[in-house]
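Late entry, written up from scratch paper. The run itself happened at the end of the previous shift, but nothing got recorded in the book at the time, so transcribing now.
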Amino acid sequence: MATLILPCEWIKNWEKSGKHEFVQLCKSLTEKKSNGDIQAALYELCWNVVQGNLKLDLAASVLGDIMELKDDMPSILADVFSILDLETGALEEKIKRDHYTQLMGACLFFVPEVILKERLDPETLESLGLIKQAHQFNQKIVKIKTKLFYKQQKFNLLREENEGYAKLITELGQDLSGNVTSHVILESIKSLIGCFNLDPNRVLDIILEVYKSRSDQDEFFLSLIKSYMCEPLTLCHILGFKFKFYQEPNEETPKSLHHIAAALLHHNLIELEDLYVHLMPLDAVILEEHKRDVSEAKQIARKLVMVVLPSDKSEDKEKEKEKEEEKNEKPPDNQKLGLLEALLRIGDWRHAQIIMDQMPSFYATSHKAIALALCQLVHLTVDPIYRSAGLPKGARGHVLHPLNNKRAPPPAETFDDLRRDTFSMLSYLGPHLSNDPLLFAKIVRLGKALMKEDTLLSCFLSIADQVLLPSLSLMECNACMSEELWGLFKLFPYQHRYRLYGQWKNETYSGHPLLVKVKAQTVERAKYIMKRLTKENVKQSGRQIGKLSHSNPTILFEYMLSQIQWYDNLIGPVVDSLKYLTSLNYDVLAYCIIEALANPEKEKMKHDDTTISSWLQSLASLCGAVFRKYPIELAGLLQYVTNQLKAGKSFDLLILKEVVQKMAGIEITEEMTSEQLEAMTGGEQLKAEGGYFGQIRNTKKSSQRLKDALLEHELALPLCLLLAQQRNGVIFLEGGEKHLKLVGHLYDQCHDTLVQFGGFLASNLSTEDYIKRVPSIDILCNQFHTPHDAAFLLSRPMYAHQILSKYDELKKTEKGNKQQQKVHKYVAACEHVMAPVHEAVVSLHPTRVWDDLRPQFYATFWSLTMYDLAVPHAAYEREVNKLKVQIRAIEENPEIPLNKKKKEKERCTALQEKLQEEEKKQLEHVQRVLHRLKLEKDNWLLAKSTKNETITKFLQLCLFPRCIFSAIDAVYCARFVELVHQQKTTNFCTLLCYDRVFSAIIYTVASCTENESHQYGRFLCCMLETATRWHSDRATYEKECVNYPGFLTIFRATGFDGGNKVDQLDYENFRHVVHKWHYMLTKASVHCLETGDYTHIRNILIVLTKILPCYPKVLNLGQALELRVQKICTEEKDKRPDLYALAMGYTGRLKSQKVHMVPENEFHHKDLPARSATPANQQNGPGSTGKPATSVSKTEEGTSEDGDRGKDKSQGTTKPVNKGNSATAKVTASNGNGAVNSAKAIKERDDKEKSGKEKKEKKEKMPGGTPETKAENRREKQRDERAGKEERAVREGKEKTPKADREKVKAEEKGIKDDKVKAGNGESVEPSRERDAIKESKSKEKADRSAVAGAVKSPIPRSESAESERDHKRRKIDGHSSPSNSSSVKHHVTYNSLSRSKSRERELEKNDSDSNTQGRAKEKKDEKERKDKKRDHAVNDREASQEFKRKKDENGTNSFKNSTSPSCDSPPSAEREKSKRSKSSSKEKTESVKPERTSSGGKKESRHEKDKSEKKEKRDSSGGKEEKKHHKSSDKHR
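Output as recorded:
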């Protein structure tokens, strides 16, 4: 009831104004047609009376007045009273009920009694006195209702004449084409009923029966029934009885009956709710049937997937027979579906929709007849708009006849009209649109037209999801529909498409029984095909795959991808078999691959957590092959990789790497041959022909597609930046709990992909695209935090593009063909482009960096490539010759058809011409670049900075970061150093640069990943090649090194004049330096091999394999390496197979290189002039403790203190391996013994002797009460006691030479194998030396100090004054002993003094560390050892002088052969061998010398401890000088 609230003021002032206002209100309300408002007003008034707010008599009088306003006012008031009756009857307050009763009593005189009896409750009527008893009244009502509705009137059938029915049928069955109308027939029917006393209901039944037989006369019969019928319910009952007649088993309801019911419903002659209850089956039965269908479909699907045993098969057959027998008893047909079909046929969508809503989803349309009826209705609805917008040009289209029904859904004229009914009809159709492919095509074409106007996008996405894709699944291999659908889908962004594919794959198939069965059948068929797919039957299997994929690509591809993840050998056949797919299927394949890659349930690592899972590698390979071969959109895959990088995950970079490799032909591999590497330094054509393992042809289209995808979606630069950032962050993001090997692999993968992707962009992007997208170098590094090497990788092509563009521009403006003019223009273009870069790079490093390097030099190094520095003529020639051979082979092959032969020859010839043109172009470019560098070189390095710091910065900021970037960069770095040397660059010390590179490789090797080790090894190999070339030929050395500033050993303030040979390192000294480099490489390699650390061993083995062509060249160094590597093979065979494989591979290759190795005396020796009085006796093999000679850079007037300072400085910058490693010290200024004035040398030695004597006198004057002095005294006493015994043993033997020391080292090398000291190759070893070596090795083992075993011992830094003084004394003793490996420098030490210094240093270090625990016993032992050494030294000196005299007498000459390292000695005489064995056998039986080992885990000394030990070394050195003087004087006395 409408709400109307009377104002409270009216009730309060009722008599004054309220009554009048209420009456006026009622008058105004009665003028309206509806009674709702007047009822509300009356209700409000009466309710106020019931509440007691208004007096009864006042209200009654007003109600009486109002009755006159309207005729039906009493009835309206009676309705109000009936409502109040119900409300007050439910109240607990009796007073309100009494008020209501009194009001009713007052109104009885103007409300008729009959109306009240109809409306009010019997109890109320009784209380009002209108009836006597309510109970009797109720009984009377029941009797009347029974009589009216349930008592059947008995007609006298005898009185009904059959003639009347016969005439009735005749009237209804007559020809209706004339002027016969329903009105005329109705009059006849009335006459017949009256005349023959016919039953009206029977007459209506006969009318319906005739209508059923003449269902085409809708208009006539509908108007007749409408005129004849009085009660719709009666008609519905009669119709219901007709339907009930056909509800028996095996009965079929005629379609005409359904048509009658539909027509009557459509014209509202009956109600659907009234008729629906008469139809069978019940809704509950339909729902149950639907559930049963779903479960059966799922069961069938399970059976198809499961492996069925033979016994199970027989049981299943029996069950199927039982089901077939049950189906033979056909249930009655579904009358509801029949009615639904009839409704759809006549176009009654409203009632049809109501019926379908009562059933499960798609249950009705799963019946083909209903689906086709609904499709026909949709055809009629969309026909006008399809003809105007969707019909292809030139097509006529099928003519449709519209329904002769004005109440049918109106046809759609615009796109907005489709929302009205069409989309809802399609959603009810669902997957069963597959029954009408024609309508499917119409809807898709409408969608394409609609997308052009960009309206209703969401609606069509829903239609595609719910209707189009499911319908495609139910279609039988319809490739045309698939292509038609792709025409619509390609207009959607890939995000929308992939969402649709995801819904289709993961949800659509589970919602309908038919789709469940289809999915199972597709999987079964896919299994059948994949089992039989091989390389031989790719074509046949491909056709089967194509047919299957047209309808259900998601299911097929999911299974195929699962198989590929298990069996990677399927990738090739599968890729080849996909050529029969449609465009839509290719797009679905891309989605399925991405979904498989992103599967969260699969681990991307193997269980050992050290390698990437094979399934991911297989999918990555598939991606590369599929996306290259077929036109599939790449945007989704690239965005997926980008998103993974954003999330800090680098596993999926494998995909990008494969895609770029396959599509662009840019291959990243570490196992490049030298020919490939050479080809990679050429142009693009040469790279494609000779730079890769696989000849990847026809990449132009695929690389263009990749480039377009990157540029269209703006992914080129973001991918580069993310790759660069991820590479540096992978250790921290992925490091965590992952294995170091895996982290290194991920780092390498990230780095390789960055290099590969950068190379792709550089070779494929146009200049404009590149410059527009890549920011300047300072923005890349400072804002995007891109590492410098990666930033220059991106910027380098941009600089090259800009320089060439500017160069071309200058050539056009100034016409001049002279080569010199062109070069000047090129230099001007370079200056124009690179000037801003020089300014930009300043912000990349702290200001102090530019004190040693110029920004111009830094930018030049990072902006050039190998293409700029050299032309690979051999590679070009090699590829051209290959093409010539290929042309000859084509000509000689008779099997090739002539036209194909001609094409192939043309292709090869064109390729040959391209290569030759490219070579010519590169040659001109290299000449221009070299001229530019020649002009720039004088401004590269600052003269004010020290050479040490300059080289340090160059290595730190340029050489080392780039040499491990890629294989080409490794070669470039070596070539650049050589080029800087060849250009005679001022202030650049080539010798120092090479020395730094070779001397301290341990830290670099230890910090490399696997791939970086390959690059670093290649770099070292290239550097060694240059050094080896200079070393092998004096003419080459003098041509390329002499008179070059890079080989100056003394840097003068006046600069380099090129003519002062005294300042240059001569050829023989350079050979000594090269030997020292080989020695340091051996030492570092042995150290890494003995650490036991996986990374150290793996990396050094990789580096050693790479540098094998140039190292080792010395026999004893090679033997030392071979021993260590064989030990690795033994230890790692069962522990770490990958290390074992590396070590075995290197061992085999090393053995094959042995034929090229030479003894040390052939590798470097020096013939000293007879007038030279200062030969060097320093031994420089890995088995000797002599320090390899170095060339320290200092002035002629420099003191030893200056040299020490320079040494300390260089050690701090390059991190030497241990304290004794002075390989990185400055290069000495000595020019060789032959080049130094002998008088001057004698004078210097005299000065040093004087200073040594002064130090000795000071030491003797010092009080001896300190603990150190006491310990020294005790040690001397102990040595004196042993001295007598040892002297006697020595005198009994034969004369000995210093070569015994070398034999001792040989014995130590053999001790590595069997832990025993065996006899050397002939010369006897002094027993005291053996004891010293044994004690030293034992003390080192206890103190955890280790050095390189046997072949390699750490050199010990000594003061130059001490060394020169000892050399001078040794020369007096030995006369003219043979020169050693010294590089003609001032570091000449004898074996005895150095070994003594070394043992003393270790004893002091041990005393510092173990002084709290060892006590006096240790001091006694040390004192005894010192005395032994003194006595040994005296004997050695004496024997050495005797040996010298003997040799002089034998040879009759004053010169000897060059001394070599211990492992390269000349064969000793049998007599010496015998004496050595006799003297050393007693000691060897009781004690064995254990090999010294280098421990990577040893604790590092603090700076304080280092300073302390250095001071002690100096003190010991001075002590050694005094001892040597003492022995010399005693020798003279003897």
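Residues 854 and 940 are 6 Å apart (CA to CA).
(Scratch paper discarded after transcription.)
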